[in-house]
Amino acid sequence: MSAAPRLERADRDLDGDGVVEAIVVDRSLCTGEGNCYWNVFVVPPPGSPDCARYAGTFEGGALEPLTTKGDDNMADVRGYWNLHGGRLLLQSYRFLRGGYRIVEALLCKRADDDKLDCADSEH
To answer: What totals of helices (H) and strands (E) does the chain contain, helices first?
Structure first.
């Protein structure tokens, strides 16, 4: 967090249990391209004596929950990191061993038809 944080929340139910996970960003730390660091906290069910627990950080100007799942039925999430010249870094996060980790990264460029052309290291 910065010395003068401007907090914004993008809470989502990532594991489908009906309780939203807290996703918080300090907008004063975002880049000029709109890229931010989104901190994820797993919130215990109502009535639980436990506190919210830090579960990782998503990096990006936009976040997209995916249909695939990691441990504890937590949804995978893709972050879109804006680079210069219409390029993007797509980073996919999976919940493993108690926290979110980057499992894939692709460098992409916006094509003339507004679709994304992405480099795949396997091809």
So the answer is: 0, 9
